[in-house]
């Protein structure tokens, strides 16, 4: 087993464990920090799978920008004391069973693949190559994304406006 | 030079997706629900990049970039919505938002 073939497994373990910790933390801040670890490990995994541009953008966009936005919003809103609720099997049990069922079915399907699991040959798509490919073949998608960002910006600005009525007792401004 | 088999990449993506779905279904805090959605999108990106290597096609990596942009836009609007909701209702508990009244 070569080094590059072996590297996948510790990376996968780091991603899986940090994500599992992120989805089970009570404090949103801890969850976000564990998810940043998971995204960094995912970026290294992308570099291993021959996608250096996607790896760099993974660090910049999800691990950097989006998670910092999450942290800022959590800081802005402050912590909220959650009231203890009566334990209900529907709260954690049913989602856990649903997610486990999907994961087990998918893993069984993957383990029963017709051909033996053969390792992928390494290849690397250079940043220039991928950028040229995107702008040659997917320029409508790039334009669509730019429109989407503009709409998201307008929507975010609209949403954070203060809509509370000027007078007390009135529902609409 | 080789890396792991495609099946193992897909298995990792599947486990992450299941974890994200669990988080989105089980948590009550709106921010943690959005976090679960982020985990699911990350799992999709891993599957796309793995498929791109398997079939030696750049389309998978190109769509991974598009997916990242979608994630950023969704997080921006979602978090702005949560700020608004928190200002209006004073809580981020999803079980409190059970009416369609504007």
Question: What's the structural blueprint in terms of helices and strands?
Answer:
The complex is a heterodimer of chains A (about 170) and B (about 100).
Chain A: H1 3-24, H2 28-48, H3 52-77, H4 89-111, E1 119-121, H5 127-137, H6 139-159
Chain B: E1 2-5, H1 6-26, H2 30-54, H3 59-89
Helix pairs in contact in B: 1-2, 2-3
Protein name (chain A): NADH-quinone oxidoreductase subunit J
Subcellular location (chain A): Cell membrane
Organism (chain A): Fundidesulfovibrio magnetotacticus
Sum up the structure in keywords.
heterodimer, A: 173 residues, mainly alpha, Four Helix Bundle (Hemerythrin (Met), subunit A), 72% helix, extended, B: 102 residues, Helix Hairpins, elongated
What does this protein look like?
- The complex is a heterodimer of chains A (173) and B (102).
- Helix content of chain A is 72%, strand content 2%.
- Chain A is an all-alpha fold and 173 residues long.
- Among the domains of chain A are: 1-80, NADH-ubiquinone/plastoquinone oxidoreductase chain 6, subunit NuoJ (Four Helix Bundle (Hemerythrin (Met), subunit A), Up-down Bundle), CATH 1.20.120.1200; 126-162.
- The model of chain B has no long low-confidence stretch (mean pLDDT 91).
- Chain B has helices at 6-26, 30-54, 59-89, and one strand spanning 2-5.
- Chain B has 3 helices and 1 strand, in the order βααα.
- Chain B has 102 residues and is mainly alpha-helical.
- Chain B has a single domain (7-89), classed as Helix Hairpins.
- Helix content of chain B is 75%, strand content 4%.
- Chains A and B meet through helix 1, helix 2, helix 3, helix 4 and strand 1 of A and strand 1, helix 1, helix 2 and helix 3 of B.
- Strand 1 of chain A pairs antiparallel with strand 1 (2-5) of chain B.
- Chain A: It is found in: Cell membrane.
- Chain A: The chain crosses the membrane at residues 6-24, 31-49, 55-78, 90-110, 138-160.
- Chain A: One of its GO terms (cellular component) is plasma membrane.
């Amino acid at each position: 087993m070569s080094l590059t073939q072996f590297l996948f497994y510790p990376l996968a373990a780091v991603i899986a464990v940090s994500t599992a910790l992120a989805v089970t933390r009570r404090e949103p801040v801890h969850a976000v920090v564990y998810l940043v670890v998971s995204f960094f490990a995912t970026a290294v995994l992308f570099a291993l799978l021959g996608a250096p541009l996607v790896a760099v953008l993974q660090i910049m966009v999800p691990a950097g920008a989006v998670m910092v936005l999450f942290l800022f919003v959590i800081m802005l809103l402050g912590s909220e004391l959650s009231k203890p609720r009566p334990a209900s099997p529907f709260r954690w049990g049913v989602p856990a069973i649903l997610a486990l069922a999907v994961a087990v079915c998918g893993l069984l399907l993957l383990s029963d693949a017709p051909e033996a699991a053969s390792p992928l040959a390494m290849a690397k798509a250079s940043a220039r190559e991928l950028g040229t490919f995107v702008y040659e073949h997917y320029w409508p998608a790039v334009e669509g994304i730019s429109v989407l960002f503009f709409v998201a910006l307008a929507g975010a600005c609209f949403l954070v406006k203060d809509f509370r009525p000027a007078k007390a007792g009135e529902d609409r401004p | 030079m080789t890396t792991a088999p495609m099946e193992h990449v897909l298995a990792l993506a599947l486990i992450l997706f299941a974890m994200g779905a669990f988080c989105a279904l089980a948590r009550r805090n709106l921010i943690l629900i959005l976090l679960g959605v982020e985990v699911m999108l990350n799992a999709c990106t891993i599957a796309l990049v793995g498929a791109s290597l398997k079939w030696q096609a750049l389309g998978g990596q190109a769509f991974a970039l598009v997916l990242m942009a979608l994630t950023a836009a969704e997080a921006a609007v979602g978090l702005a919505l949560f700020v608004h909701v928190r200002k209006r209702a004073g809580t981020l508990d999803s079980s409190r938002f059970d009416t369609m009244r504007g």
